[in-house]
Amino acid sequence: MPPPGGTIDAIGAARVAGALTGLAATGTTSVEVTDHGIVLHLASGPEVRMGEGTRAGVKIRAALAVLDAMQAAVPTYVDVSVPTNPVAG
Protein backbone atom coordinates (compact mmCIF):
# COMPACT_ATOMS: atom_id res chain seq x y z
CA MET A 1 0.00 0.00 0.00
CA PRO A 2 1.38 3.43 -0.91
CA PRO A 3 1.70 6.21 1.67
CA PRO A 4 -1.22 8.60 2.25
CA GLY A 5 -1.73 10.77 -0.82
CA GLY A 6 0.23 8.26 -2.88
CA THR A 7 -0.88 6.46 -5.99
CA ILE A 8 -2.31 2.97 -5.89
CA ASP A 9 -0.21 0.61 -7.97
CA ALA A 10 -1.77 -0.68 -11.17
CA ILE A 11 -2.63 -4.10 -9.73
CA GLY A 12 -4.25 -2.61 -6.62
CA ALA A 13 -6.19 -0.08 -8.67
CA ALA A 14 -7.36 -2.76 -11.09
CA ARG A 15 -8.46 -4.98 -8.20
CA VAL A 16 -10.56 -2.20 -6.65
CA ALA A 17 -11.94 -0.97 -10.01
CA GLY A 18 -12.83 -4.51 -11.05
CA ALA A 19 -14.78 -5.02 -7.84
CA LEU A 20 -16.95 -1.93 -8.28
CA THR A 21 -20.58 -2.86 -8.93
CA GLY A 22 -23.92 -1.10 -8.74
CA LEU A 23 -23.80 2.32 -7.10
CA ALA A 24 -20.05 2.05 -6.53
CA ALA A 25 -19.39 1.51 -10.24
CA THR A 26 -21.54 4.40 -11.45
CA GLY A 27 -21.13 6.74 -8.51
CA THR A 28 -17.50 6.63 -7.43
CA THR A 29 -15.95 10.06 -7.94
CA SER A 30 -12.47 9.22 -6.63
CA VAL A 31 -10.34 6.58 -4.96
CA GLU A 32 -7.95 7.80 -2.27
CA VAL A 33 -5.18 6.19 -0.24
CA THR A 34 -5.07 7.33 3.38
CA ASP A 35 -3.08 6.20 6.39
CA HIS A 36 -5.99 3.81 7.10
CA GLY A 37 -6.21 2.30 3.62
CA ILE A 38 -8.27 2.79 0.47
CA VAL A 39 -11.26 5.14 0.53
CA LEU A 40 -13.88 5.43 -2.21
CA HIS A 41 -15.68 8.78 -2.44
CA LEU A 42 -19.22 8.33 -3.75
CA ALA A 43 -21.14 10.98 -5.68
CA SER A 44 -24.13 10.39 -3.38
CA GLY A 45 -22.12 11.65 -0.42
CA PRO A 46 -20.72 8.88 1.75
CA GLU A 47 -17.20 7.58 1.65
CA VAL A 48 -16.47 3.87 1.71
CA ARG A 49 -13.50 3.04 3.93
CA MET A 50 -12.09 -0.22 2.63
CA GLY A 51 -8.91 -0.61 4.64
CA GLU A 52 -6.44 -2.78 2.73
CA GLY A 53 -7.17 -3.43 -0.94
CA THR A 54 -7.68 -7.13 -0.32
CA ARG A 55 -11.12 -8.78 -0.62
CA ALA A 56 -12.33 -5.74 -2.57
CA GLY A 57 -15.37 -7.50 -4.04
CA VAL A 58 -16.59 -8.66 -0.63
CA LYS A 59 -16.05 -5.19 0.84
CA ILE A 60 -17.90 -3.46 -2.01
CA ARG A 61 -20.87 -5.81 -1.65
CA ALA A 62 -20.96 -5.20 2.13
CA ALA A 63 -20.87 -1.43 1.63
CA LEU A 64 -23.66 -1.55 -0.96
CA ALA A 65 -25.79 -3.67 1.38
CA VAL A 66 -25.34 -1.15 4.20
CA LEU A 67 -26.15 1.79 1.91
CA ASP A 68 -29.20 -0.01 0.56
CA ALA A 69 -30.46 -0.67 4.10
CA MET A 70 -29.95 2.99 5.08
CA GLN A 71 -31.68 4.65 2.12
CA ALA A 72 -33.61 7.10 4.29
CA ALA A 73 -30.55 8.29 6.22
CA VAL A 74 -27.39 8.47 4.09
CA PRO A 75 -24.38 8.04 6.37
CA THR A 76 -21.20 10.10 6.16
CA TYR A 77 -19.13 6.94 5.84
CA VAL A 78 -19.33 3.18 5.64
CA ASP A 79 -16.32 1.30 7.01
CA VAL A 80 -15.96 -2.17 5.53
CA SER A 81 -12.34 -2.76 6.47
CA VAL A 82 -13.77 -5.80 8.27
CA PRO A 83 -16.50 -6.74 5.78
CA THR A 84 -18.27 -9.14 8.14
CA ASN A 85 -18.72 -6.26 10.60
CA PRO A 86 -19.44 -3.07 8.61
CA VAL A 87 -19.86 0.20 10.47
CA ALA A 88 -21.69 3.33 9.28
CA GLY A 89 -21.74 6.76 10.80
Pick out its properties.
89 residues, alpha+beta, 5-stranded mixed beta sheet, 3 helices, 5 strands, 26% strand
Task: Give a topology summary.
Blueprint: H1 10-19, H2 22-27, E1 28-34, E2 37-42, E3 47-51, H3 56-69, E4 77-79, E5 87-88
Parallel strand pairs: 3-4
Antiparallel strand pairs: 1-2, 2-3, 4-5
Helix pairs in contact: 1-3
Shape: globular
Write down the overall mean pLDDT: 79
Q: Kindly report how far apart the N and C termini lie.
A: 25 Å
The total of helices stands at 3
> What order do the helices and strands follow?
HHEEEHEE
**In what order do the strands lie side by side in the largest sheet?**
1-2-3-4-5
Radius of gyration in whole Å, from Cα? 12 Å
Characterize the biggest β-sheet. Answer: 5 strands, mixed
The helix content is 25-40%
Structural class: alpha+beta
Percent of residues in beta strands?
25-35%
Point out poorly predicted stretches. Answer: none
Describe the structure.
- The protein is an alpha+beta fold.
- Helices cover 34% and strands 26% of the residues.
- It has helices at 10-19, 22-27, 56-69, and strands spanning 28-34, 37-42, 47-51, 77-79, 87-88.
- Strands 1-2-3-4-5 form a 5-stranded mixed sheet.
- A hairpin with a 7-residue loop joins strand 4 (77-79) and strand 5.
- The mean pLDDT is 79.
